[in-house]
Write a structure and sequence with these properties.
Strand content: 15-25%
Largest sheet: 5 strands, mixed
Family: Belongs to the KCNMB (TC 8.A.14.1) family. KCNMB1 subfamily.
Shape: elongated
Pfam family, one: CaKB
Number of helices: 4
Subcellular location: Membrane
Protein name: KCMB1 protein
Order of helices and strands: HEEEHHEEH
Distance between the termini: 20 Å
Strand order of the largest sheet: 4-1-2-3-5
Number of domains: 2
Number of strands: 5
Membrane topology: Multi-pass membrane protein
Helix content: 40-55%
Structural class: alpha+beta
Low-confidence stretches: 69-73
Length: 200
Protein backbone atom coordinates (compact mmCIF):
# COMPACT_ATOMS: atom_id res chain seq x y z
CA UNK A 1 0.00 0.00 0.00
CA UNK A 2 2.84 2.35 0.92
CA UNK A 3 4.67 1.43 -2.28
CA UNK A 4 1.64 2.37 -4.40
CA UNK A 5 1.39 5.74 -2.64
CA UNK A 6 5.08 6.41 -3.27
CA UNK A 7 4.71 5.51 -6.94
CA UNK A 8 1.62 7.74 -7.26
CA UNK A 9 3.42 10.65 -5.57
CA UNK A 10 6.43 10.13 -7.82
CA UNK A 11 4.24 10.18 -10.93
CA UNK A 12 2.51 13.36 -9.77
CA UNK A 13 5.88 15.00 -9.13
CA UNK A 14 7.15 13.97 -12.54
CA UNK A 15 3.98 15.29 -14.18
CA UNK A 16 4.31 18.64 -12.41
CA UNK A 17 8.00 18.89 -13.26
CA UNK A 18 7.23 18.02 -16.89
CA UNK A 19 4.52 20.69 -17.02
CA UNK A 20 6.94 23.19 -15.49
CA UNK A 21 9.57 22.39 -18.12
CA UNK A 22 7.08 22.63 -20.98
CA UNK A 23 5.73 25.90 -19.55
CA UNK A 24 9.23 27.36 -19.38
CA UNK A 25 9.91 26.34 -22.98
CA UNK A 26 6.58 27.83 -24.13
CA UNK A 27 7.24 31.11 -22.26
CA UNK A 28 10.73 31.37 -23.73
CA UNK A 29 9.36 30.88 -27.24
CA UNK A 30 6.81 33.65 -26.62
CA UNK A 31 9.61 35.93 -25.40
CA UNK A 32 11.65 35.12 -28.51
CA UNK A 33 8.64 36.03 -30.67
CA UNK A 34 8.04 39.27 -28.77
CA UNK A 35 11.70 40.32 -29.07
CA UNK A 36 11.69 39.35 -32.74
CA UNK A 37 8.77 41.64 -33.61
CA UNK A 38 9.73 44.59 -31.39
CA UNK A 39 13.47 45.00 -30.77
CA UNK A 40 15.03 43.19 -33.74
CA UNK A 41 13.34 45.34 -36.44
CA UNK A 42 14.59 48.54 -34.76
CA UNK A 43 18.08 47.04 -34.53
CA UNK A 44 18.22 45.96 -38.18
CA UNK A 45 16.61 49.20 -39.39
CA UNK A 46 19.31 51.38 -37.83
CA UNK A 47 22.04 52.38 -40.31
CA UNK A 48 24.28 54.02 -37.69
CA UNK A 49 26.40 50.94 -37.07
CA UNK A 50 30.00 52.18 -37.21
CA UNK A 51 31.58 53.82 -34.18
CA UNK A 52 33.99 56.73 -34.45
CA UNK A 53 35.07 59.82 -32.53
CA UNK A 54 33.21 63.12 -32.80
CA UNK A 55 34.54 66.53 -31.83
CA UNK A 56 32.10 69.31 -30.97
CA UNK A 57 32.30 72.34 -33.23
CA UNK A 58 29.36 74.29 -31.83
CA UNK A 59 26.40 73.71 -29.53
CA UNK A 60 23.71 76.36 -29.77
CA UNK A 61 20.25 76.70 -28.24
CA UNK A 62 17.80 78.16 -30.71
CA UNK A 63 14.33 79.56 -30.17
CA UNK A 64 11.58 77.31 -28.91
CA UNK A 65 10.15 74.75 -31.31
CA UNK A 66 7.22 72.38 -30.99
CA UNK A 67 7.55 68.67 -30.37
CA UNK A 68 7.05 66.35 -32.08
CA UNK A 69 7.57 67.26 -35.70
CA UNK A 70 6.03 64.04 -36.99
CA UNK A 71 2.78 63.38 -38.77
CA UNK A 72 -0.18 62.01 -36.87
CA UNK A 73 0.81 63.64 -33.59
CA UNK A 74 -1.98 64.53 -31.22
CA UNK A 75 -2.36 68.09 -29.95
CA UNK A 76 -1.81 67.05 -26.35
CA UNK A 77 1.58 65.60 -27.26
CA UNK A 78 2.84 68.84 -28.79
CA UNK A 79 4.71 71.15 -26.43
CA UNK A 80 7.31 73.90 -26.92
CA UNK A 81 10.93 73.46 -25.83
CA UNK A 82 14.32 75.10 -26.60
CA UNK A 83 15.98 73.59 -29.66
CA UNK A 84 19.53 72.39 -29.04
CA UNK A 85 21.65 72.02 -32.17
CA UNK A 86 25.02 70.30 -31.85
CA UNK A 87 27.41 70.25 -34.80
CA UNK A 88 30.41 67.93 -34.71
CA UNK A 89 33.42 67.10 -36.79
CA UNK A 90 33.27 63.46 -37.88
CA UNK A 91 36.73 61.92 -37.50
CA UNK A 92 36.03 59.13 -39.99
CA UNK A 93 35.40 61.54 -42.89
CA UNK A 94 36.28 64.98 -41.55
CA UNK A 95 32.80 66.30 -42.36
CA UNK A 96 30.80 68.77 -40.31
CA UNK A 97 27.55 67.02 -39.45
CA UNK A 98 24.70 67.38 -36.99
CA UNK A 99 24.55 65.19 -33.92
CA UNK A 100 21.36 63.54 -32.63
CA UNK A 101 20.84 61.76 -29.34
CA UNK A 102 19.34 58.55 -30.84
CA UNK A 103 17.64 57.34 -34.01
CA UNK A 104 14.30 58.28 -32.46
CA UNK A 105 15.41 61.91 -32.03
CA UNK A 106 15.90 62.30 -35.78
CA UNK A 107 12.43 60.91 -36.49
CA UNK A 108 10.72 63.08 -33.87
CA UNK A 109 12.37 66.36 -34.83
CA UNK A 110 15.24 66.56 -37.36
CA UNK A 111 15.86 70.22 -36.48
CA UNK A 112 17.07 69.53 -32.92
CA UNK A 113 19.80 67.32 -31.50
CA UNK A 114 17.81 66.55 -28.36
CA UNK A 115 14.08 66.07 -27.87
CA UNK A 116 12.96 66.04 -24.22
CA UNK A 117 10.13 64.02 -22.82
CA UNK A 118 6.93 65.87 -22.13
CA UNK A 119 7.17 67.59 -18.74
CA UNK A 120 4.67 69.89 -17.10
CA UNK A 121 7.40 72.18 -15.78
CA UNK A 122 9.00 74.03 -18.70
CA UNK A 123 11.79 75.29 -16.42
CA UNK A 124 12.99 71.74 -15.87
CA UNK A 125 13.11 71.18 -19.63
CA UNK A 126 15.05 74.39 -20.17
CA UNK A 127 17.50 73.60 -17.35
CA UNK A 128 18.08 70.09 -18.68
CA UNK A 129 18.80 71.31 -22.20
CA UNK A 130 21.17 73.98 -20.90
CA UNK A 131 22.99 71.32 -18.86
CA UNK A 132 23.33 69.07 -21.91
CA UNK A 133 24.68 71.98 -23.97
CA UNK A 134 27.24 72.84 -21.29
CA UNK A 135 28.34 69.19 -21.09
CA UNK A 136 28.94 69.13 -24.85
CA UNK A 137 31.04 72.28 -24.55
CA UNK A 138 32.95 70.79 -21.62
CA UNK A 139 33.54 67.30 -23.03
CA UNK A 140 34.18 68.10 -26.67
CA UNK A 141 35.45 64.69 -27.79
CA UNK A 142 33.33 61.56 -27.40
CA UNK A 143 32.40 58.35 -29.28
CA UNK A 144 29.48 58.50 -31.69
CA UNK A 145 27.89 56.39 -34.43
CA UNK A 146 27.69 57.12 -38.14
CA UNK A 147 26.35 55.45 -41.27
CA UNK A 148 29.20 53.75 -43.16
CA UNK A 149 26.96 53.37 -46.22
CA UNK A 150 26.51 57.12 -46.53
CA UNK A 151 22.71 57.14 -46.69
CA UNK A 152 22.61 59.28 -43.51
CA UNK A 153 25.06 62.15 -43.28
CA UNK A 154 24.30 62.87 -39.63
CA UNK A 155 25.53 61.00 -36.55
CA UNK A 156 23.96 59.81 -33.31
CA UNK A 157 25.31 59.81 -29.78
CA UNK A 158 23.95 56.41 -28.75
CA UNK A 159 21.93 53.63 -30.37
CA UNK A 160 18.54 52.69 -28.99
CA UNK A 161 19.34 48.99 -29.29
CA UNK A 162 23.09 48.30 -29.41
CA UNK A 163 24.52 44.85 -29.98
CA UNK A 164 25.11 44.28 -26.27
CA UNK A 165 21.54 45.29 -25.49
CA UNK A 166 20.21 42.86 -28.08
CA UNK A 167 22.31 40.02 -26.67
CA UNK A 168 21.11 40.88 -23.15
CA UNK A 169 17.49 40.80 -24.37
CA UNK A 170 17.99 37.29 -25.74
CA UNK A 171 19.83 36.12 -22.60
CA UNK A 172 16.78 35.61 -20.34
CA UNK A 173 14.62 33.61 -22.78
CA UNK A 174 17.67 31.52 -23.64
CA UNK A 175 18.26 30.71 -19.96
CA UNK A 176 14.57 29.90 -19.52
CA UNK A 177 14.55 27.68 -22.61
CA UNK A 178 17.69 25.87 -21.45
CA UNK A 179 16.26 25.37 -17.95
CA UNK A 180 12.98 24.06 -19.32
CA UNK A 181 14.73 21.59 -21.64
CA UNK A 182 16.96 20.46 -18.77
CA UNK A 183 13.94 19.79 -16.55
CA UNK A 184 12.25 17.77 -19.31
CA UNK A 185 15.40 15.73 -19.90
CA UNK A 186 15.82 15.02 -16.18
CA UNK A 187 12.19 13.90 -15.90
CA UNK A 188 12.56 11.59 -18.87
CA UNK A 189 15.75 10.11 -17.39
CA UNK A 190 13.98 9.60 -14.07
CA UNK A 191 11.08 7.86 -15.82
CA UNK A 192 13.49 5.65 -17.75
CA UNK A 193 15.28 4.51 -14.60
CA UNK A 194 11.95 3.95 -12.84
CA UNK A 195 10.77 1.67 -15.65
CA UNK A 196 14.14 -0.08 -15.72
CA UNK A 197 14.13 -0.75 -11.98
CA UNK A 198 10.52 -1.97 -12.10
CA UNK A 199 11.37 -4.33 -14.96
CA UNK A 200 14.31 -5.76 -13.06
Amino acid sequence: MLGKKLVTAQKRGETRALCLGLGMVACSMMMYFFIGITIVPFYTKSVWTAETVCKVLKANIKDKVFCPNSEGAEDEDIFPYPCLQVWVNLTASGQEVMLYQTEDTLERNPKCSYVPDKLENSKEVKARIETIASNFKKYQTFPCYYDPGGTQTNVILSRLYPSKGLLFAFLWPTLMFTGGCLIIVLVKISQYFSVLSAWQ
